[in-house]
Amino acid sequence: MGLRLHFVVDPMGWFCISMVLFVWLYNSFFIPQLVLLPHFQEGHIPGAVVVLYYLASLLCVTALFRASTADPGRLPQNPHIPHSEREQWELCNKCNLMRPKRSHHCSRCGHCVRKMDHHCPWINNCVGEDNHWLFLQLCFYTQVLSLFTLAMDFCQYYYFPSLTQTDTEQFVWRHELALLRVSTFMGLFMFGGMGSLFYTQIAGILTDTTTIEKMSHFLEEINQPRRPWHQTFAEVFGTRWKILWLLPFRRRQALHGSQLLPATLETARPRNEIRTGYGTHTLRWFEGL
């Protein structure tokens, strides 16, 4: 697909992403081997449950790999600035390079990132304009996989019948601690942590503000008129097709102008326009409203 890999040299980030990979490996290999496959072989669960679990695991690790290796929107050394947008660019006081407004300099990565949300050590990468959609997918699929794992742990202890082809005493003494305690603890930790992070990210998209902007003292300057939720999400994910918002295997295409507007409004003639730092937002007044 012509994708370029982006790696950040940060030992702390490598440690954090290794912890995330360990949790994923544990849930993707131990849970199927100890719960899903044995109970599937004895007819306690349908094959669709096994397929869905592996699908959730695949989507989770794909979003993790893409979010950690995708370019978040790093600005080049000598960016080309269109003449009509020069007023929307400013000089970075750290790297002395021109950058668009709402960009931010990441001290850990050492460069400016377009519409940077924050630097996430758990993916060892910045979350910016070009990989924000992958970070959202990672938060979502991590919650799905964690919730799936918690459900399997609960069913193993309270719902599933005993396995006839497994030594029950040997199974309990060897695997109960790892399965019901470690797996449950990791599932609760990941589901709770990613759930709160996912909520803050969704709230930021709906209000068109980044995490850095929320923490700054210039919210009144950067706040923009509230747009419909499907337009803000389409801008982040790079497509108006909502089904594609869930797929981490594709390539994002930046949307601008009329691409963000519904087809029914694209043909309407505007009567007034407002220019902001990120394009032209059109206000339309129709007769009879």
UniProtKB/TrEMBL annotation:
What family does the entry list? Belongs to the DHHC palmitoyltransferase family.
User: What are the record keywords, sorted?
Assistant: Acyltransferase, Membrane, Transferase, Transmembrane, Transmembrane helix
EC category name: transferase
**Known Pfam families for this protein?**
DHHC
Q: Which GO terms describe its cellular component?
A: endoplasmic reticulum; Golgi apparatus; membrane
Q: Where in the cell is it found?
A: Membrane
Record carries keyword Transmembrane: yes
Superkingdom of source: Eukaryota
Predominant location of this chain?
Answer: membrane
- In this chain the Palmitoyltransferase DHHC domain maps to 87-216
Q: Which GO terms describe its molecular function?
A: protein-cysteine S-palmitoyltransferase activity; thiosulfate-cyanide sulfurtransferase activity
GO BP, one annotated term: protein targeting to membrane
What are its E.C. numbers? 2.3.1.225
Domain comment, as recorded: The DHHC domain is required for palmitoyltransferase activity.
Q: What is this protein called?
A: Palmitoyltransferase
Q: Which residue ranges does UniProt annotate as crossing the membrane? A: 12-31, 43-65, 138-159, 179-199
Q: Which InterPro entries match?
A: Palmitoyltrfase_DHHC, PFA4/ZDH16/20/ERF2-like, Thiosulphate_STrfase_CS
Q: Which reaction does it catalyse?
A: L-cysteinyl-[protein] + hexadecanoyl-CoA = S-hexadecanoyl-L-cysteinyl-[protein] + CoA
Q: How does it sit in the membrane?
A: Multi-pass membrane protein
